[in-house]
Amino acid sequence: MEYRVRHSITDAEDVSMLSRLMHESVHGVADSAYSAEERAAWSPAPRDGEEARERFAGQHVWIAEDDEGPCAFMTLKDDGYLDFAYALPRAAGRGAAGRVYDALEAWARAEGVGTLTSDISLVARPFMEKRGWHVLRKQENVVGEVILINFRMEKNLSAEV
């Protein structure tokens, strides 16, 4: 499958699409590591409205598209924090996220970002470790009465040649 990747700053038009893609990913990809109760706490519905616009506002976004449309995306804040990383079930494990990540990291290096950090899910951890990220700590996030496990991870770009 060939994926096209575009980079932009998130705007109001992106928010609804990104929110739906994230929700579909949580419920269609993360089911391998998180229970139905955990996934419902993580993403009970696609985020929309002002809260979603504020959450995505001003972030750099890389979106992979296939013949059916957007299928994976990642966002990066100016401080090097990778905030969102999601792929639809049809694209998971097929290279879309890899293409998005490669574009994101190349941009970060070109912009002089020294370190990338993120809070990474159980599902995404192996993907990130293959790309040189390492775990700083395991985290237990309480959402309602549910505990969601993820990992604070980082990759030092300035230490690599």
Task: Describe the fold and architecture.
The chain has 161 residues and is of the alpha+beta class. The protein has a domain of 110 residues: Gcn5-related N-acetyltransferase (GNAT) (Aminopeptidase, 3-Layer(aba) Sandwich). It has a 7-stranded mixed β-sheet, with helices on both faces. Helix 1 crosses helix 3. It is an enzyme of class 2 (transferase).
Summarize the structure.
This protein has 161 residues and is α+β, with helices and mostly antiparallel strands.
Features:
Aminopeptidase; 7 strands
Strand content: 25-35%
- Can you tell me the CATH topology of the domain at 4-113? Aminopeptidase
- Classified by CATH, the class of the domain at 4-113 is Alpha Beta
Please give the largest β-sheet: 7 strands, mixed
What value does the Rg take, in angstroms?
15 Å
